[in-house]
User: Which sequence fits this backbone?
């Protein structure tokens, strides 16, 4: 019985992608902790300063896997939910509970930071 997951020779590019994936997991864990802390502050606040908005984000990955990991990471982070993916235009629409701007460059910096670029490097 053949139990191989990958049926081709591994290349240096595959190893580099694996390293990017480890970096992605590390950054995602940090963003998770930061977002949980923000949500606790909002929940325990007497007068929470929230500003819910639907914002757009230009995604760098073009593959289904790259877009899926980025959209899932956004949804799994407290305070943000991916509501629509427009693959043809390279856009993801996000509901952000504590929006500071609707400018896509600000959204990228504050919501996904380096994850967008890393997802593109891992999955293309």
Assistant:
């Amino acid at each position: 019985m053949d139990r191989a997951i990958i049926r081709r020779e591994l290349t240096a590019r595959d190893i580099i992608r694996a390293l990017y994936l480890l970096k992605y997991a590390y950054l995602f864990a940090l963003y998770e902790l930061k977002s949980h802390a923000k949500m606790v502050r909002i929940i325990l606040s007497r007068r929470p300063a929230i500003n819910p908005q639907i914002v757009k984000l230009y995604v760098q990955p073009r593959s289904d896997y790259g877009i899926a990991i980025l959209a899932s990471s956004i949804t799994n982070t407290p305070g943000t939910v991916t509501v629509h993916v427009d693959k043809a235009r390279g856009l993801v629409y996000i509901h952000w509970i504590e929006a500071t701007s609707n400018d896509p460059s600000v959204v990228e910096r504050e919501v996904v930071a380096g994850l967008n670029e890393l997802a593109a490097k891992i999955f293309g």
About this structure: Residues 12-44 form the longest helix (33 residues). The CA atoms of residues 88 and 114 lie 22 Å apart. Helices lie at 12-44, 64-76, 104-112, 115-123. Residues 12-123 form one domain.
